[in-house]
Task: inverse folding
């Protein structure tokens, strides 16, 4: 292995270490506890509507207050794969939405609702 290849390998290792640390910090800030990768748990302050399986994406981006539905805010989660983004999930703040109204909107989008 050449010196340049060793440098790239070390940079990738450090990048992955940084990403893992960043994700743990973000989860702590959101008040989420660590779960098994396949375990699904509701978010403490939001209802969720899954529109596409997250396994189909490489990265994710979140846009808070991405729009309003009947005057109530919604947040969007975009799944990114091969440089293209797709609306993967909608989040409904519990401070503005009732479970039944969020579930109804989610059904209209043909999503999977999680309270």
Result:
């Amino acid at each position: 292995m050449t010196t340049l290849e060793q440098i790239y390998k070390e940079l990738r290792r450090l990048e992955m270490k940084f990403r893992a640390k960043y994700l743990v910090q973000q989860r702590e800030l959101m008040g989420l506890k660590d779960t098994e990768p396949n375990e699904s748990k509701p978010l403490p302050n939001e209802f969720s509507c899954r529109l596409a399986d997250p396994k189909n994406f490489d990265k994710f981006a979140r846009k808070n207050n991405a729009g309003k539905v009947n005057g109530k805010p919604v947040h969007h989660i975009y799944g990114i794969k091969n440089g293209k983004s797709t609306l993967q999930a909608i989040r409904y703040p519990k401070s503005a939405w009732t479970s039944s109204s969020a579930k109804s909107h989610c059904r209209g989008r043909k999503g999977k609702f999680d309270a």
Summary: The CA atoms of residues 71 and 96 lie 9 Å apart. The first helix runs from residue 3 to 29.
